[in-house]
Amino acid sequence: AALALDNGLARTPPMGWLHWERFLCGTDCAADPRRCVSEQLFVEMADRMAAEGWRDAGYEFICIDDCWMAPTRDKQGRLQADPKRFPGGIRKLADYVHSKGLKLGIYSDVGNKTCAGFPGSYNHYDLDAQTFASWGVDLLKFDGCNSDSLELLAEGYRHMSLALNKTGRSIVYSCEWPFYLRPVQQPNYTEIKQYCNHWRNFYDVYDSWSSIKSILDWTALHQDTIVKIAGPGGWNDPDMALVIGNFGLSWDQSVTQMAMWAIMAAPLFMSNDLRHISPEAKCLLQNKEVIAINQDPLGKQGYQLAKDKNFQLWERPLSGRAYAVAVLNHQEIGGPQNFTFSLTFLGNGLACNPACSIRQVLPASRDWGIYSWISSLSVEVNPTGTVLLKV
Question: Alpha galactosidase A C-terminal domain location, by residue (predicted)?
Fold first, then answer.
């Protein structure tokens, strides 16, 4: 049987929109129709994605997360959408999403219940995979709540991978497998990549700087384990949700999330309200140069190169012998600070040998000119901000 590694999908990190973080488990459509998890919400987001440049920028998936289901399976044992909130069912919604040139993602759980208490896929892996395929689903986010043991968890993730491939439909497989293993044992990333197209390593992202910072700190701490496994067909997911355009991040912190998710070769799934998003947030999320770094075909994940007081220096090898370089200022007090480093640091000394051109991508795009191998670079960075360069 083909494994996820061989399903030909996710050759670059997937991009799209998902409801979790911004819309959580809103199920009371009578009280709050604009903010409940419903057919209407996904139709309206699909319309925005097609009409306002999101699809053309590369955001192709529109993903349903937890809380879409009815409380019980149907008489044939199949999962079913909540009939009040999804009156047309998932197949009709998938057809609509596809008509907009987009793809539909859905959510289930390896255990007997989802994290929010809806029916899970345990003992129904083959049936659920067939159901999702028959509905025209293009991505499955498979959570790890309510599994009775680590053995059942691992078996469930393997089983669903094979079941999805058996359907004959191309379905990207997004796993939470390592996140649920980590408290007890070190994940076997080689095995996980055999079965999954991307995999969650850390806690849910929140709409806050402390959440973004903790994800970056965790990634840097574990980079020796996780960076080498990422590549075309399989990606580390630091929690894919981009919370840019919501409430918790300053402008500089939004720039940091966008820049660092590009450096980390992370899946880019926005969780925001595209019906109410500022022009600045839209411009940042649709920035073609940053997206090109994230989607670079070489498929290498970036890593932290150096840490000095409040500064972090990250690099990511790109195709065409280029590098993406991020300078992140962790300081949360005072004003902009300068960080100076030698270009011989970059790419094991090869990035700028004998000379290189440097272009700033974020927070604003401009050319910095040509530098020699022995030059030093001084970068001014705002507190909690990032300057993203292409060398």
Answer: 299-385
Q: Taking 60 as the threshold, does the pLDDT of residue 362 lie above it? A: yes
pLDDT digits (tens, 9 = 90+) for 196-215: 999 999 999 999 999 999 99
Q: What CA–CA distances, in Å, run from 147 to 102, 180, 269, 315?
A: 32, 10, 26, 38
The reported pLDDT for the residue numbered 1 is 43
Q: Catalytic residues, which ones? A: 143, 204
Closest C-alpha among 103, 379, 385, 102 to residue 258: 385
| Antiparallel, parallel or unpaired: β 323-329 and 311-317 | antiparallel
Q: Is the dihedral of CA 209, 212, 214, 220 positive or negative?
A: negative
Fold classification of 303-390 is Immunoglobulin-like (2.60.40)
Which residue(s) pair with 324 in the sheet? Answer: 316, 390
What's the whole-number mean pLDDT along residues 352-374?
97
Cα distances from 25 to residues 19, 116, 332, in angstroms, run 9, 8, 33
When pLDDT is cut at 50, 70 and 90, the band that residue 6 belongs to is: confident
Place of tokens 């020796």: 224
